[in-house]
Amino acid sequence: MNDRNTDTGIGAAVLRKEDRRFITGFGRYTDDINEVGQCHAVFLRSPYARADIGEIDVSAPLEMDGVIAILTGRDMAADGLGDLPCGWSVKSKDGSDMISAPHPPLASERVNYVGEPYGVVLAETRQAARDAAEAVATDFGELEAVVVLKTATSSEAIHEAVPQNRCYLWELGDEQATDAAFQNAAHVVTLELTNNRIIPNAIEPRAALATHNPASDEITLYTTSQNPHLARLILSAFVGLSPEHKLRLIAPDVGGGFGSKIFVYPEETTVAWAARRIARPVKWAADRSESFLTDAHGRDHLSRVELALDADGQFLGLRVRTTANLGAYLSLFAASVPTYLYGTLLAGQYRTPAIHVEVEGVYTNTVPVDAVRGAGRPEATYVVERIVEVAARQLGIDPVELRRRNMIQPDQFPYQTPVALVYDTGNYQASLDRALDAIDYGGFPARRAASEAAGKKRGLGFACYIEACGLAPSQLAISLGAGVGLYESGEVRVNPTGSVTVFTGSHSHGQGHETTFAQIVSDRLGVPFDDVEVVHGDTGRVEFGLGTYGSRSVAVGGSALVVAADKVIAKGKLIAAHMLKADPAAIDFESGEFSVRDSNQSLSFGEVAFAAYVPADYPEDLEPGLSEKAFYDPENFTFPAGTHIAEVEIDPQTGVTEVVAFVAVDDFGEVINPMIVEGQVHGGIAQGIGQALLEHGVYDDQGQLITGSYMDYCMPRADDLPDFDVDTTITPCTHNPLGVKGCGEAGAIGSPAAVMNAITDALGTEEITMPATSEKVWRICRGD
Amino acid sequence: MSGIHVSTTINGDPVEFVCQPGETLLDVLRDRLRLTGSKDGCGTGDCGACSVTVDGRLVCSCLVLGAEAEGREVTTIEGLADGENLHPLQSKFIEHAALQCGICTPGFLVAAKALLDRNSNPTEEEIRFALAGNLCRCTGYDKIVRAVSAAATEVRKQEGRKQRRSF
Ligand code: FES
Ligand code: FES
What we know:
The structure holds 2 protein chains of 2 kinds. Chain A is of the alpha+beta class. In chain A, the strands form 7 sheets. Chain A has a 7-stranded mixed β-sheet with strand order 3-5-1-12-9-10-11, sandwiched between helices. Chain B contains 5 helices and 5 strands. In chain B, strand 3 and strand 4 form a beta hairpin. Chain B is globular and about 50 Å long. The interface between A and B is large, with 57 and 57 residues. The complex binds FE2/S2 (inorganic) cluster (FES) (2 copies).
């Protein structure tokens, strides 16, 4: 790091470049954009969880004021549009492939969840489209729906091609070794766990605005996407909407994603198709009910967990059987979330020598379930950290002590787990120690006594989590079943005046990349932070990208920028050598200056940039220009890890649980902008506490979503949450040039287990499922 | 359906518009006046992203009819800064990183302004309660609360200066 950049370089808490537009109301989100001549789309949606679509009578609504067209799934099928794909394949333990049910963007014959779109009304105003949609008369032949996860495999098959509604029965680990471990165990601890269904609820609902230019035949689609290039690839190569070079996707400011905006959805697809069909720009913005009904939900696992221990409390084996709800169709990442992103993390921070996990992925007549912040890793952490805590209680060992006895030691890295991953580095004891200090573990008994004296119950809960981030080392990902490699691309374009425009395939929807990535490039090139502009989210400007999820942006996208910046420096040296008539090998670059070693000759970055673009006497082997790109493929996943501790106080009179303290000490490797990282952790913790205490997506037995509004689905609000006490420890990632690991999901991964461990500690029973609502807690306190 | 003619004041400027009887103030602001700073997060009064003040009172503009703006003074996020000069709440939101994706931010700023107008020395608990009508999915609220508290201090300083000047 050079002098000029200590305030804005790597490691500095630089204020965010993007914020001024947001705080003045000039952010530009999809729904803020309008096209001349646009019309509005409202979708025809299934009122049933499972039904055959009969005749669709649109004669009356077509006559209504302002109605332009009504298109259905049958029109779409006639146009030859293909199905929405799942990007990952999973094999069952018997070697057979998973069974993927066809997922047309608009249903034409049968609907399989409440809210599934089967048509679209296009009208001059949104209100006219709504009125017309209500006037469409569709004959539905209602069928029995499969809603209950527990009994789904013994219910009627939802899709003809999928017997027993089982998509796959996947396994990982050594079953025999695990069985043997249980036979030799002094103690076996067993737990049934439910990981509740959550609804992502980005505050910006999904939206799309498509324009078709008849002269160029190009479709431009503004959309709320975390990965516009991937979406374009799918729409072009799989759905067959339009050739890739005739399709431009722009994800402008996006109001939060949390996974839900990764996937290619029916509505965005339909809007783009409709714009060409009716030769008008088409706009759609989901209302909140549509978000609840149609954004992919998260989690929804049932698990049986067994931990085998020897007489000293050493873990011998872990056996996990999980049933995972996939919803009615396989969404883009759905197959991978309860398998590769879950089973591989079941070693946690521990040396458990034998692990075997079996996951049954099951279809139900509910909206697809896919990645939500953490995606698989919160579920894995919940399994591991709950059973460890329960084991400590049953064996009468302090939960910290039991964890310490089993943790991987700092000198054991790289560490091969029994579930496929190799952890490159870490120091779990360091974050645990720091967290214990922060919560004042020694003072807890006194605090508990004080609570008891006041008629309250106090509990403390731990979660020592690990996650695999930086998706993904392509070879490993493909060997696990990914459809494509998971590189990230970056381009560092130096302008003739020496300012820099950075193009990244990552996408920011709250993460602050315009700041973080500018810090990385400015630090590397020694140009002022304000001279670096970051461009993302536009397939018309950025060459390619796989987008933002899995805490991959800085670890993979940021690393690509480092490689590109280094190429810029290398080329700059050739230019400087030519200008200074020196040997290129004798050129040094530091703090934005090219100089000839052991001389006083030097050139500024700006002088070199200018010469690069308007040269007069260039040698033949030097090409003008100073712009370089790089694709970065990580060697391995990164492994952020840490300790979260929740302290709760319960009022038995009301059942209200107050999180009185929450400590998170995370090891994210090197940190580019600590202020932004802290915010990411806060937001994740809030979502995790929400899952543990308040949030629950519930379908009734007819498959109607009964938590379809903010009155029924309880989101954490400002008065539900504590201040957070967050800190970091650092073991740099060993295999990327920045030493970073990723921070976006940790908060949501550790917190549910920590909070539930605290609540069960306070209540003295394990018999409570998430969300631990005040009603449930109150009933337990009453002894109901 | 015939439109309703409405004369009102928005962010200090006289404004006239024609709207349908069923149109919300949020729709009018966003779709007719292109003041898109107020956001539509739910349309049911539950998220606060659409917060504006009408005659100084904090409302969800998704629950107010456009026609109800007749003769009133409406303030939106676009009216919070004084030209290039940010309101202390805005500066403190940046300094404390109280926003991430920014979609909820206009609503929080308008709601926080309404709080400080009534109580320029709120406790943390008062801030949390005053902002409980606004949903943020990104920040966990911690930094928002800190930013509002810091802005309150700044506002009190400014008021003190103004008072001293007027003596
Ligand atoms: S949009 Fe008005 S409260 Fe949510
Ligand atoms: S900053 Fe994204 S919802 Fe609040």
